[in-house]
Automatic annotation (TrEMBL):
Initiates complex N-linked carbohydrate formation. Essential for the conversion of high-mannose to hybrid and complex N-glycans. It is an enzyme of class 2 (transferase). This is Alpha-1,3-mannosyl-glycoprotein 2-beta-N-acetylglucosaminyltransferase. InterPro entries: Glyco_trans_13, Glycosyltransferase_13, Nucleotide-diphossugar_trans. It catalyses: N(4)-(alpha-D-Man-(1->3)-[alpha-D-Man-(1->3)-[alpha-D-Man-(1->6)]-alpha-D-Man-(1->6)]-beta-D-Man-(1->4)-beta-D-GlcNAc-(1->4)-beta-D-GlcNAc)-L-asparaginyl-[protein] (N-glucan mannose isomer 5A1,2) + UDP-N-acetyl-alpha-D-glucosamine = N(4)-{beta-D-GlcNAc-(1->2)-alpha-D-Man-(1->3)-[alpha-D-Man-(1->3)-[alpha-D-Man-(1->6)]-alpha-D-Man-(1->6)]-beta-D-Man-(1->4)-beta-D-GlcNAc-(1->4)-beta-D-GlcNAc}-L-asparaginyl-[protein] + UDP + H(+).
Length: 496
């Protein structure tokens, strides 16, 4: 920053010199013609008033012309200065630092060292070096749009942060990520490795330069309370997430997509995040985009609508995007363990919701080591991975914004006919179309989901995939909403 300020000051000083010269020229013109005038009056002149007036007019015109000339000259000098100041500033820089590799640096673009400038800092710098006139078209400045977080065309750069430890099967994940990546510049893959496992590191390194490997530097033993010894893995995972996210966001990115090393991704994985990222900025009630559907088994999804997306109060994780501002908020209080349960707590969630797809864009090929429990692991493998490519960037996704969604979704659900699970199962519903199954307490919810084969657990009182308590899924040929009664009062922490 210091250097940029010096450059800015220096330019201002240059402008001062030019203004003084221009001012001098103008004053000189006036003084010169003033003396001309006096002399001409002193000389014997024709007595004719008319002729005298004509002479005055002529001199007046000459003065005006001279003024115009000096104005033109001033402008020319200013333009010259503007066209040339970038190189002059870098030569100034060169003089200060004497490092040859800085020769070609344009001052307003360069990130000094590894600490990128924040947007605000960049604006400040740009404000200092911006020429005062609006003739920017004449200026062949280097392209100022491309930054660490955005491409030249304004599209965001979205790093894919892969969290690795000691599974060599990460190759399956990386193959997929590289295979479907439309543009390596826009989606840099950063693999962060914890655990220091040599074999895994070698697998990751074999993918260079398609990705970058970074290593979590703190391999010190982690303090775990005696009672939680068996959960040590979760403490390490939490430390790793915190380090890796901090590292990635500190590069200057606006968005990061987190992928664990046991995930396969769908062909339109990148397109999905590219098409939805703007929603996170547009709608403050959104805090994540997830590629995962917790109830994404083949029999619960509507295969004819791969483009369908939903809002959910349940944080799904498993291939998800967050913004820098959310990370700034969470990083300062990041927990020592069980970050996923922690993030789902109302204190963190603050009623914010995620977008999730009808058909999962990620699928886990199995966890070994730290596990979510046998049932969950087994279940996960039945999740259907989307195969079709949906052009999300071409779709109108404003139906997902809170006001639009709440207006239509809640109204729709609560005008649907109520049926029982038994009627559904025995195909006793005469009419086609969506229906609603009602639940009024925890036990009822558990019973119905178990019978259906849906996920039946809660986190911080929120059922998986629920929005306003409503779990939406596909059953045979129709959509079914498992919904609390209309005067629902919100999630109950004691249901967990
Ligand atoms: C976050 O990363 C930056 C840059 O890499 C580092 O200076 C800072 O100490 C890190 N903060 C935490 C809490 O790890
Ligand atoms: C997008 O969809 C919304 C409704 O969700 C509609 O109001 C809006 O007009 C649509 N925009 C375009 C460009 O079609």
């Amino acid at each position: 920053m210091k250097m940029e300020y010096i450059c800015g000051l220096w330019i201002i000083m240059r402008y001062h010199k030019i203004l003084i010269i221009a001012g001098f020229l103008i004053i000189w013109t006036f003084v010169f013609y003033y003396f001309m005038l006096r002399n001409s009056i002193d000389f014997p002149l024709p007595e004719n008033d008319y002729r005298r007036k004509m002479m005055f007019k002529k001199i007046e015109n000459q003065v005006k012309q001279e003024l115009k000339k000096s104005e033109k000259l001033t402008n020319a000098v200013l333009r010259y200065l503007k066209l040339n100041y970038p190189s002059e500033v870098s030569s100034n820089k060169r003089r200060e630092s004497q490092t040859p590799q800085q020769k070609d640096q344009a001052p307003q673009l360069q990130l000094v060292g590894v600490v990128p400038l924040t947007d605000k800092e960049q604006q400040t710098v740009m404000g200092l070096v911006e020429p005062p006139e609006q003739e920017q078209n004449h200026l062949e400045l280097p392209h100022v749009d491309a930054t660490i977080s955005h491409l030249k065309d304004g599209q965001p750069i979205i790093p894919i942060l892969v969290l690795a430890c000691n599974r060599v099967s990460i190759a399956k994940c990386l193959d997929n990520l590289i295979q479907y990546r439309p543009n390596a510049e826009q989606f840099p893959i950063i693999v962060s490795q914890d655990c220091g496992d040599e074999a895994t590191r070698n697998v990751i390194l074999s993918y260079e330069p398609q990705l970058t490997l970074v290593e979590q530097p703190d391999q010190s033993d982690i303090f775990v309370p005696p009672k939680e010894k068996k959960f040590k893995g979760y403490y390490k995972i939490s430390r790793h997430y915190s380090w890796a996210l901090n590292y990635t966001f500190s590069q200057g990115y606006e968005y990061v997509v987190i992928v664990e090393d046991d995930l396969n991704v769908a062909p339109d994985f990148y397109e999905y995040f590219l098409g939805t990222h703007h929603l996170l900025k547009q709608d403050p009630s959104l805090w994540c985009i997830s590629a995962w559907n917790d109830n994404g088994k083949a029999k619960f999804i509507d295969a004819s609508h791969p483009e369908l997306l939903h809002r959910t109060d349940f944080f799904p994780g498993l291939g998800w995007m967050l913004t820098k501002s959310l990370w700034q908020e969470l990083s300062v209080k990041w927990p020592k363990s069980f970050w996923d349960d922690w993030i789902r707590h109302p204190e963190q969630r603050k009623n914010r919701v995620c977008i999730r797809p009808e058909i999962s864009r990620t699928r886990t090929f199995g966890k070994i080591g730290v596990s979510n429990g046998l049932f969950f692991d087994k279940y996960l493998r039945y999740i259907k991975l989307s195969e079709e490519f949906v052009p999300f960037t071409q779709l109108n996704l404003s139906y997902l914004l809170k006001d639009n969604y709440d207006n239509t979704f809640l109204k729709k659900v609560y005008t649907l006919p109520i049926v029982t699970y038994d009627e559904l199962r025995r195909r006793l519903i005469s009419k086609d179309g969506p229906v609603r199954i009602q639940y009024i307490n925890r036990e009822q919810y558990k019973r119905i989901t178990k019978m259906l084969g849906l996920m039946d657990d809660f986190k911080s009182g929120v059922p998986r995939t629920a929005y306003h308590g409503i779990v939406s899924f596909f059953y045979e040929t129709r959509r079914v909403y498992l919904a609390p009664n209309l005067n629902w009062k919100g999630y109950d922490l004691s249901w967990s």
